[in-house]
């Protein structure tokens, strides 16, 4: 099952939490808190996959965190906000497991979602 990197935007306890996926342009999720936003994320990927399927397209293969760190578009977007963003690896729902190329599971990703802070060395929560 592929895992997509998700950027988590959290602006405080009294604000909704947003999640977007650098590999899935236009795909986003949200919730009243981090837990709800992460629970909603696989559904967002599934709906995105359904939308692509209607256009006879498939999900792109997910890139690794390392690859995204070297993508100038992603780096430019989050550079000014690096202290408040987190990264999550979100599993695509089984019915959406239609990536263009088979993805190798990311090392240490056995559950549906893994969350990392983007500060210094990334660590698993």
Describe this structure in words.
The chain is an alpha+beta fold and 125 residues long. The chain has one domain: 2-Layer Sandwich (Double Stranded RNA Binding Domain). Helix content is 26%, strand content 22%. Strands 3-2-1-4-5 form a five-stranded antiparallel β-sheet. A hairpin with a 7-residue loop joins strand 2 and strand 3.
Q: In what range is the share of β-strand residues?
A: 15-25%
Spatial gap, N to C terminus: 21 Å
Compute the number of helices. 3
Task: Tell me the CATH architecture.
Answer: 2-Layer Sandwich
Shape label: globular
Question: How confident overall, as mean pLDDT?
Answer: 75
Structural category is alpha+beta
The poorly predicted ranges are 101-111, 115-125
How much helicity do the residues have?
25-40%
Question: Order of strands across the biggest sheet?
Answer: 3-2-1-4-5
CA-atom Rg in angstroms: 14 Å
State the order of secondary-structure elements, H for helix, E for strand.
Answer: EEEHHHEE
CATH topology-level fold name: Double Stranded RNA Binding Domain
Biggest β-sheet description: 5 strands, antiparallel
Keywords:
125 residues; alpha+beta; Double Stranded RNA Binding Domain; five-stranded antiparallel beta sheet; 3 helices; 22% strand; globular; disordered C terminus
Brief synopsis:
The protein is α+β, with helices and mostly antiparallel strands.
């Amino acid at each position: 099952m592929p895992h997509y990197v998700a950027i988590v935007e959290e602006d405080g306890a009294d604000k909704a939490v947003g999640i977007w996926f650098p590999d899935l342009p236009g795909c986003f999720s949200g919730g009243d808190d981090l837990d709800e936003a992460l629970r909603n994320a696989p559904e967002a990927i599934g709906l995105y996959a359904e939308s692509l399927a209607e256009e006879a397209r498939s999900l792109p293969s997910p890139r690794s965190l390392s690859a995204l760190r070297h993508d100038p578009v992603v780096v430019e977007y989050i550079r000014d906000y690096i202290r408040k963003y987190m990264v999550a690896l979100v599993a695509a729902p089984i019915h959406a497991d239609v990536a263009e190329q088979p993805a190798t599971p990311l090392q240490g990703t056995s559950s549906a979602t893994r969350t990392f802070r983007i500060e210094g060395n990334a660590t698993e929560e």
